[in-house]
Design a protein that fits this description.
By secondary structure, the protein is mostly helical. The protein has one domain. It is built from twelve helices and no strands. The longest helix has 43 residues. The two termini are 29 Å apart.
């Protein structure tokens, strides 16, 4: 029976995912195991905060200055202080890029370490760190390239928006209204869909391509080539999966917010502590990873990370 003929459900994996959480974290309860798996989860979650928001100048007057005057003052300030602004900007940019690359690299290793712990019910750090080095490095390179492409595409769209907005605003009168309408349409018709596409690529890579890499011992692009026909052949099912993931995220968010409110923000103060917060949220993280693996398992035994010993190339 092919995956297209198999009954695929977004509901069925919920119960076994809860059972997986109980088995890994509570049968028996082992605080040391929590801290080891929590460390792997913490590495995986590094740098996984919210994405950037794109806000553009509104063109309105502020503090009695027109947009042209603001640009003139800014230009004069930059020219007068260029001797130190340029080197400082370069240094800060390089430092930020290095930090982001290190975080992404550690996170890529952490994803395979955490997957190893959940799939095999093992609290290990050293073994998966070395065992999945090749896959993690490939995943890291894929994420960097994807980020660069996404950033380039979005910046190109932003530049197009900025140029056309300036041209429309320069006309004055009705052109200002047209510029505002154009910017709104541009954001929702081009920039937002672009961000959604790259977000979906990232989501599918984390949820499904990484487990395929885990099982086959292949690179990220090779795993994507295997997953792509499955995705194309089951577009409706994966669309439903994404929608259900949104529902799960909202439910988890409500539970966490309720817990913070009930404890008078005490829980929130603990959750923001690096690593400790991840350990406290470990049941949610293990459930989320287990759910994605159990959903993928419905497409055939070859995608079952719980019963197949992962290969390492």
């Amino acid at each position: 029976m092919t995956p297209q003929e198999t009954q695929i459900s977004v509901i069925d994996p919920i119960s076994p995912a809860f059972e997986r959480v109980k088995t890994i974290l509570f049968r028996p309860f082992d605080l040391g195991k929590w801290f080891v798996i929590g460390f792997c989860a913490w590495l995986a979650c590094l740098g996984s905060g919210g994405g950037p928001s794109f806000n553009f100048p509104s063109g309105q007057q502020r503090h009695g200055l027109s947009s042209g005057e603001v640009l003139d003052h800014t230009k004069d300030f930059l020219i007068e202080n260029l001797f130190w602004i340029l080197p400082a900007a370069i240094i800060v940019t390089v430092v930020i890029i290095i930090i982001c690359l290190v975080i992404t690299w550690l996170s890529s290793r952490g994803h395979f370490m955490f997957l190893h712990c959940v799939a095999l019910n093992k609290a290990e750090v050293k073994v998966p760190w070395h065992k999945f080095k090749k896959q993690a490095n490939s995943f890291f390179l894929f994420r960097v390239v994807l980020a660069l492409i996404g950033f380039g595409v979005v910046m190109l769209l932003v530049a197009m928006l900025a140029v056309i907005s300036v041209l429309l605003f320069a006309g004055g009168g009705h052109s200002n209204l047209l510029a505002i309408i154009f910017r709104v349409l541009f954001k929702f018709c081009l920039i937002l869909p672009t961000v959604i596409v790259f977000t979906l690529i990232k989501k599918f890579t984390l949820d499904f391509v990484v487990p395929v890499m885990f099982l086959r011992g292949t690179t990220c692009t090779t795993a994507w080539r295997e997953f792509w026909p499955l995705l194309i052949g089951n577009k409706g099912k994966f669309a439903l999966y994404i929608l259900f993931q949104i529902v799960i995220s909202l439910a988890v968010g409500i539970i966490v917010i309720a817990g913070v409110c009930i404890t008078c923000c005490f829980l929130g103060c603990i959750l923001v502590i690096p690593y400790i917060g991840t350990v406290l949220l470990l049941p949610i993280l293990v459930f989320d990873r287990s759910y994605t693996l159990l959903y993928l398992r419905q497409y055939g035994p070859s995608f079952d990370v719980f019963s197949i010993e992962p290969a390492v190339a």
